[in-house]
Amino acid sequence: MPAVVGKLEGRGNGKKTVIVNATDVGKALKRPGEYLTKYCAVELGTISTYDKAQGQGGLTGWHETPMLQEKTNKFIKEWVLCARCNLPETSMELNKRRDIVFDCKACGNHYVADMTHKLATYIVNNPPDPKGGIIQGGGAVGKGKSKEERRAAKLAKQRSNGSDAAAPTAAAEEEDEEEDEEATNVPASELKDRDIGTFATAADADDDEDEEWSVDTSAKAVAERLKLQESAYNKVEAAAQAASDRRNAEEEGLDEFELQKRKVSEQVKAALEKAEEEADDDKEKISLGVKGLMAIAEEHDLQPLDLFGFFFDGVLDANALVTLKANTKLLQKLYKATPNKKKTQKFLLVQVEALVGRVPELMKKTPSILKYFYDNDLLDDEETLFAWHDKVSKKKLGRAVREAATPFITWLKEADDESSEEESDEEQ
């Protein structure tokens, strides 16, 4: 297997890591490169994209190559090696219950994958195909055969079993009727691939030309038609908005990755604004805000740490302190949901730096912003704060933010010293 090659790109809020040889590594492991990229994203708590044309995976933020290799080794252990013989001779497929099943060619072990892992959800929605790629949207094997081909296969099977093959069985005919019925129930997204006459039946051609047609004018029928028209209009409007966003992104020099980040940030901001408008009190506002963020996290497969990042990017501006104080309870719930508190606090410090860099007028308010997080137990690890402040940053922004934070750090150290002296006096 080739070693993973990572490439750091972008700067500021546009940082991203490209797994240059994701496809090559995937081929060596007999797994799609998309699976490896998605696994790394889940493990690192970030968002992934995949460029099929280049065979490259993308992750938000900067992640060093050794870390990517470590996650790749973990992916191999969990999703490539056989659980019994520990050999990379497994194939992967979905059973009728849509469970991911591994089949080891070396020892014959047949077992189900860990379906609680987030990668399992992605695989179920994008199952592997026989050629080593994936079926986007969860296509099912065998759906490409025509009705005639399926009927011929059934007849051949009947002949091999010695049964009468002169005509399809009643069960086969009934199944064909069900398939005919299913063929007419096609999603709107697939209608563009169908000929206009596909859904016409033979009986339609024999209809009486003199038959009178009428339109249902009842209130219910009118309401249904209006509903359909509104739905169609919303789809057209959404498509036009998407095209407009792409044009604006191209003008601003943003790639698809940056456009997706902006979209999620706007969704987070809209969810909190909606909670503010619809809530009658603070308790309901928090509840609605949490539900809104959970829906966004589920839609984009985000972790609580990701939501913190999008909150900083999409919600906070020059009035950051006011906005933070208005959302304290919500942020505390989000913080409580993070599995690694120390990692979260380090991440918050990085976000504070990025926020001050994006909104320069907040530089002088850096001590107040840090004290807000400290007072509300979102940055309560003093060792983490001291280590961050003492670290010599290579970037001009990092040095400036640390210098601006000095009054807060000095106050924190003095308060810590006074506390230590009081404890010493009590012991004596």
Spell out the blueprint of helices and strands.
Elements: E1 6-9, E2 16-19, H1 22-29, H2 33-44, E3 48-51, E4 56-60, H3 65-79, E5 90-94, E6 100-104, E7 110-112, H4 118-125, H5 147-160, H6 170-184, H7 202-205, H8 219-252, H9 256-278, H10 282-300, H11 304-314, H12 320-326, H13 328-336, H14 341-358, H15 366-375, H16 382-390, H17 396-404, H18 406-427
Antiparallel strand pairs: 1-2, 2-4, 3-4, 5-6, 6-7
Helix pairs in contact: 1-2, 2-3, 2-4, 9-10, 9-11, 10-13, 11-14, 15-18
Model description:
With 428 residues, this protein is of the alpha+beta class. Among the domains are: 4-123, Defensin A-like; 255-419, Alpha Horseshoe (Serine Threonine Protein Phosphatase 5, Tetratricopeptide repeat), CATH 1.25.40.180. It has 18 helices and seven strands. The strands form two sheets. A four-stranded antiparallel sheet has the order 1-2-4-3, covered by helices on one side. A three-stranded antiparallel sheet has the order 5-6-7. A hairpin with a 4-residue loop joins β3 and β4 (56-60). α9 packs across α11 and α15 (366-375) crosses α18. The longest helix has 34 residues, at 219-252. The relative contact order is 0.05. GO terms for molecular function: eukaryotic initiation factor eIF2 binding; GDP-dissociation inhibitor activity; GTP binding; translation initiation factor activity. Residues 129-192 are annotated as: Disordered. Keywords: Coiled coil, GTP-binding, Initiation factor, Nucleotide-binding, Protein biosynthesis. Residues 172-183 have a biased composition (Acidic residues). This is W2 domain-containing protein.
